[in-house]
């Protein structure tokens, strides 16, 4: 009897429980708001946890010829270590990771790409089928937000794939496919032209793209040697890297050449002005207010330049923002070649009530090789050989080390300010590639705290520290200076000439120049000896006084530019050159009167 009850109990459980469970599930469908989501989650969990084989499917993209084959994963239980080992031992995947986008597309579209995908799937768990819908939705969203050069990139990828196929032996042995691919390459190249975005492409570009897709598909069916594809991709990658290196070197050389070549208009201008100057009588060749030149109560500027238009912009921009223009005195020193032209420019374009002095460096008879070590070095045969002999150009990796402008004594005249202005106590030194945006008179009232040089530090960027400019492998440098010390900028510097004389700064400069006669301490220009000469004698100014980088960096912070008292076009991309950065040229050009007769005659335009 007891056995009978037990059997009946088991029977009721086996029959009634499934019915109850079934009706409960039906109730879930009837009330979807309460448990429909739970049911779908259970299904997804079931699909994820069960090692079901996913059917082969092909997902087509409207804007791509690449197909993705989803195959069943052969090994789903691989450990993390096994996956890493498989990835490291897979040469194909290594090439894909290093290859540019075009080469990656070429490899993915290869007939054996499915094997590569299979290897990838062995290293990843099977993707739930529910996620395919989400992926398709994401692809649709991506198509709506495609970049403006999507088709241009696609065409370039096609060219790379076509060239890859044409280099493979299996394609070469098929004359029909070879001819067809070569024809497609010509068509796509012609359609692509110089286009940088899709809107630049001709109307038939889409037809050419589709035709190339069909030809590439034929080539993919013929070529089935994956090892040959990998080998060729590696060769193409190496060739591309080598071409990039060569092009970078050529670009650097041509940029340097362009930056140091005088534009035709700027060559015409001094010739035209010089001719005009010598038509004046002696009384017309003099500037007014010459009694102010040695008045220490006024604001004195030192500007050493052979570029007439650049010097004019410095003066014009400074006076435009000066509160009392009549208190400002500009001392311009130029070379013998441009002396008459510089005087003629400012005689015909006087800067309002400000005072102008133009001097010829040849008149500084005290500045000779017996007094100045750098002048002696600049005229030495070894120095000329260093800067001008092409057979030694490979000795320095940086071409700007070999810029002949460093042979100009004008570049080194900044170290002789007390000799040039013996009766002045403070002078503001300005480079000729700057633009003044605010009144600068506040600099004269600054307390430099016993320092000689007031300058803006540049160590916010790591490459502007002492080890960038000085040779710390030399014990003379390593024992006396800190390689991580913060550098500062030339271009706008307030100099205390009284303190300069008291500390004999010019003699410090001479001593280090004599030690560097073989260029073992530094090689480049005037900043390295400036860092040495004014070591622990430089007062740090607020960065808003002087913002640099407009001659090489297109991403200077706009807020910093707007707040700056002085903006500096340091670098090769000067605003008076065609290679200047366009968005920065406007700050410079607004201080040039292009309607001036001399500029129109020399065809100098904005």
Automatic annotation (TrEMBL):
GO molecular function annotation: polygalacturonate 4-alpha-galacturonosyltransferase activity
Subcellular location as annotated: Golgi apparatus membrane
InterPro entries: GAUT, Glyco_trans_8, Nucleotide-diphossugar_trans
Pathway note: Glycan metabolism; pectin biosynthesis
Main location (coarse class): Golgi
Gene Ontology annotations of biological process type: cell wall organization; pectin biosynthetic process
First-level EC class: transferase
Annotated GO CC locations: Golgi membrane
Membrane topology: Single-pass type II membrane protein
EC number: 2.4.1.-
Keywords, alphabetical: Cell wall biogenesis/degradation, Glycosyltransferase, Golgi apparatus, Transferase
Isomerase in keyword set: no
Family: Belongs to the glycosyltransferase 8 family.
Protein name: Hexosyltransferase
Organism of provenance: Gossypium raimondii
């Amino acid at each position: 009897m007891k056995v009978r009850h037990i059997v009946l109990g088991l029977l009721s459980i086996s029959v009634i429980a499934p019915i109850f469970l079934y009706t409960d599930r039906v109730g879930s469908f009837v009330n979807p708001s309460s448990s429909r989501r739970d049911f779908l989650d259970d299904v997804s969990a079931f699909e994820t946890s069960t090692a079901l084989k996913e059917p082969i499917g092909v997902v087509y993209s409207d804007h791509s010829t690449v197909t993705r084959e989803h195959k069943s994963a052969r090994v789903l239980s691989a450990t993390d270590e096994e996956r890493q080992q498989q990835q490291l031992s897979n040469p194909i995947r290594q090439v894909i990771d290093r290859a540019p986008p075009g080469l990656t597309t070429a490899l993915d579209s290869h007939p054996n790409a499915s094997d590569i995908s299979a290897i990838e799937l062995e290293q990843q768990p099977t993707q739930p089928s529910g996620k395919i819908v989400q992926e398709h939705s994401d692809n649709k969203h991506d198509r709506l937000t495609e970049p403006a050069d999507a088709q241009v990139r696609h065409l370039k990828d096609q060219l790379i794939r076509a060239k890859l196929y044409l280099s493979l032996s299996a394609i070469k042995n098929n004359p029909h496919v070879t001819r067809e691919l070569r024809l497609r390459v010509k068509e796509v190249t012609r359609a692509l032209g110089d286009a940088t975005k899709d809107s630049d492409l001709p109307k038939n570009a889409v037809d050419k793209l589709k035709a190339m897709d069909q030809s590439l598909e034929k080539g993919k069916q013929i070529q089935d040697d994956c090892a040959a594809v990998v080998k060729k991709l590696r060769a193409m990658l190496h060739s591309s890297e080598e071409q990039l290196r060569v092009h970078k070197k050529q670009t650097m050389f041509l940029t340097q050449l362009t930056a140091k070549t005088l534009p035709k208009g700027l060559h015409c201008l001094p010739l035209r002005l010089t001719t005009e100057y010598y038509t004046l009588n002696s009384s017309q060749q003099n500037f007014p207010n010459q009694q102010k030149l040695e008045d220490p109560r006024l604001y004195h500027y030192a500007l050493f330049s052979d570029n007439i238009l650049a010097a004019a912009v410095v003066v014009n921009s400074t006076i435009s923002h000066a509160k009392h223009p009549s208190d400002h005195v500009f001392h311009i020193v130029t070379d013998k070649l441009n002396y008459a032209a510089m005087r003629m420019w400012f005689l015909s374009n006087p800067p309002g009530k400000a005072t102008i002095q133009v001097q010829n460096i040849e008149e500084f008879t005290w500045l000779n090789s017996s007094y100045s070590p750098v002048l002696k070095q600049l005229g030495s045969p070894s120095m000329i050989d260093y800067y001008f002999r092409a057979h030694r150009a490979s000795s320095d990796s940086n071409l700007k080390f070999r810029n002949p402008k460093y042979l100009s004594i004008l570049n080194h005249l900044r170290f002789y300010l007390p000799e040039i202005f013996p009766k002045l106590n403070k002078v503001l030194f300005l480079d000729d590639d700057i633009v003044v945006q605010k009144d600068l008179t506040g600099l004269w009232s600054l307390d430099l705290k016993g320092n000689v040089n007031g300058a803006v530090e540049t160590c916010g960027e790591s490459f502007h520290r002492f080890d960038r400019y000085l040779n710390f492998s030399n014990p003379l440098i390593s024992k006396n200076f800190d390689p991580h010390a913060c550098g500062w900028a030339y271009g706008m510097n307030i100099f205390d000439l009284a303190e300069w004389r008291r500390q004999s700064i010019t003699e410090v400069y001479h001593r280090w120049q004599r030690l560097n006669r073989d260029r073992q301490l530094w090689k480049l220009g005037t900043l390295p000896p400036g860092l040495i000469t004014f070591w622990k004698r430089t007062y740090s100014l607020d960065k808003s006084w002087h913002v640099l980088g407009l001659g090489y960096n297109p991403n200077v912070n706009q807020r910093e530019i707007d707040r700056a008292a002085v903006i500096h076009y340091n670098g090769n991309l000067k605003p008076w050159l065609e290679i200047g950065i366009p968005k920065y040229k406007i700050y410079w050009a607004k201080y040039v009167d292009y309607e001036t007769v001399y500029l129109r005659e020399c065809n100098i335009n904005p």
